[in-house]
Amino acid sequence: MDGSNESVVYEFVLLGLASSQEMQVLLFLFFSVFYLVSMLGNLLIVLTVIGDTRLHSPMYFLLANLSFIDTCVCSIATPKMISDLFKKRKVISRNGCITQMFFIHIAGGTEMVLLIIMAFDRFIAICRPLHYLTIMSPRRCILLLMMSWIIGFIHSMMQLAFVVNLPFCGPNKVDSFYCDFPRFIKLACMDTYKLEFLVTANSGFISMGTFFILMVSYMFILVTVRKHSSGGSSKALSTLSAHITVVIFFFGPCIIVYVWPFPTLPIDKFLAIFYAVIIPVMNPAIYTFRNKEMKVAMKKLFSNIISSRKFS
Cβ neighbours of residue 205 under 8 Å, at least 6 residues apart? Predict the structure, then answer.
């Protein structure tokens, strides 16, 4: 066998988050609880929207799809991270690493577009209320949702095209608990400066551009809302504040990881945890606790489940 073939890297070692056993136990409990709460919370939102006819509106349709994407986000890397905590050697294959990055970016890209669609939905509801149901018809909502997944898929495939054929023959240690493009590219046996710039342009600048568009949109909507003094305006402000909070928490880590020119591993790891584990928990909490209709619908869902068990 040729010597060069023996040095080809087919798997990567994830260094994880901690080496001490006490810290691993704490992380296991922390991530297990957050993962369980995230899955149950987001699935509860999806089931509530599906089961309650009063929530069959464009806003809740989009919210349910956001919750579905969050279940995908927290299921891409978190289960493996939890199972790897007590392993001495945390290994992921090259194809597994690429697959993980593909799904992380297709979910992230889709969520970015979906947040823009949700901002557009609030703009139409507040600025053109008489035409809201006509503009945000069920057919158009489905088309917009399909568009978000298509754009997310294209974004992820563009990222993948940069790295799928990279040569790996040297270091194979990834100082994280999951694979992502910046650290993955740095391990390649070639000059990666141009590739790193392309990844930054594709993810970082898109994140910043989308965030800027959303902030300008919400500022415009807030100015419009403040001109009204009815009770409906306070409800609109509550909904908008929830949307803006989600946008800030979602885009903050993305912008820092992909755009900040001075990477620091402790901060990067914290932001990775924040994005993969904490944000999927915060979204259902923010939307549920600030929304009376969702709370009433969830209480109704629980009461129906309890009553059905009594009579079964």
Answer: 259
Angle between helices 292-311 and 21-51 (to 10 degrees): 90
**Amino acid type, 227:** K
Structural tokens at position 198: 């392309």
With CA atoms as reference, report the closest residue to 104 among 8, 214, 184, 209. Answer: 184
Region 85-112 average pLDDT: 88
Give tens-digit pLDDT for 102-129: 998 899 899 999 999 999 998 898 888 8
pTM of the model: 0.86
Q: Any alpha helices (H) in the chain, and if so which ranges?
A: 3-6, 21-51, 58-76, 78-84, 94-127, 132-135, 138-163, 181-186, 193-199, 205-226, 231-259, 265-273, 279-289, 292-311
Would you call 12 helix, strand, or coil by DSSP?
strand
What separation in angstroms does the CA of 40 have from each of 70, 111, 249, 284, 304?
11, 19, 20, 10, 18
Name the CA radius of gyration of the chain, rounded.
Answer: 22
Rounded Cα distance, 287 and 10, in Å: 43
pLDDT of residue 4: 45
